[in-house]
């Protein structure tokens, strides 16, 4: 099987209430207001008629203003967001680095959460047990590994999640921005591990505002603007297009 991403006329919509509200309570309150004659629910057209093909060996960078659709695109490719119409084909093992806190059980220990998160990533309990000590050593959070996650600082949670999520690579690697994961020593380890995963992956899709990183890693650039792809070509011209569209150059 050839590793690939193939999208044909993909559209993705959000319900505006569900997209804007951050809690179930606030969503229910909004729905109650709507029933009482408040503003109408409007769908947000997050991805608009997206068509592209990415094949083995490609290193693709995504550019766009905040809210342009980069993160939504990555989550759609990963299968986290269902498409509204069109065709999505993704062949190969997908590994993604975003939403690092996803899958943690607050009342369980860090060690228990290594297993839980591994299962969420589609890995077997036997495999997770085999890499547990490697994950613990990489996260480097000391005795807290045997404490409940709810006692962790935000930085400790990110470090443990990063250690778990990057313990094994995949055919298709999806990255969303640079991950801040603690002190300088840990960040050095994190960057090295990401570069190792990039090297091992057959396909890389990276969303970033860091032009230097995009230039150094990616040959192909895709520019999103309000959910649409407005450029797909070599990275230097993609960066130029992004700057022009967003008023960063004359």
UniProtKB/TrEMBL annotation:
Domain (ABC transporter) ranges: 12-249
Top-level lineage group: Bacteria
Keywords, ordered alphabetically: ATP-binding, Nucleotide-binding
Residue spans crossing the bilayer: none
Keyword Heme: no
GO molecular function: ATP binding
PROSITE patterns xrefs: ABC_TRANSPORTER_1, ABC_TRANSPORTER_2
Family indicated by similarity: Belongs to the ABC transporter superfamily.
The name this protein goes by in its record: Lipopolysaccharide transport system ATP-binding protein
């Amino acid at each position: 099987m050839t590793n690939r991403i193939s999208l044909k006329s993909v559209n993705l919509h959000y319900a505006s209430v569900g997209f804007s509200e951050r809690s179930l309570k606030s969503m229910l309150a909004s729905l109650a207001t709507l029933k009482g004659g408040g503003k109408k629910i409007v769908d947000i057209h997050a991805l608009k008629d997206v068509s592209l093909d990415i094949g083995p060996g490609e290193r693709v960078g995504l550019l766009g203003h905040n809210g342009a659709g980069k993160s939504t695109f990555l989550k759609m490719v990963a299968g986290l967001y269902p498409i509204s119409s069109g065709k999505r084909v993704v062949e190969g093992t997908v590994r993604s680095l975003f939403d690092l806190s996803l899958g943690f059980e607050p009342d369980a220990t860090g060690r228990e959460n290594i297993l839980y998160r591994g299962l969420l990533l589609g890995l077997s309990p036997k495999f997770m047990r085999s890499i547990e000590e490697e994950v613990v050593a990489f996260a480097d959070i000391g005795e807290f590994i045997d404490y409940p996650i709810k006692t962790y600082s935000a930085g400790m949670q990110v470090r443990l999640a990063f250690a778990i999520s990057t313990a094994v690579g995949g055919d298709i690697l999806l990255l969303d921005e640079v991950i801040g994961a603690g002190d300088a020593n840990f960040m050095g380890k994190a960057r090295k591990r990401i570069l190792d995963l990039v090297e091992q992956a057959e396909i890389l899709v990276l969303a970033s505002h860091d032009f230097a990183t995009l230039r150094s890693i990616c040959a192909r650039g895709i520019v999103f603007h309000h959910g649409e792809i407005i450029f797909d070509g070599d990275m230097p011209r993609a960066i130029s297009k992004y700057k022009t569209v967003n008023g960063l150059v004359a």
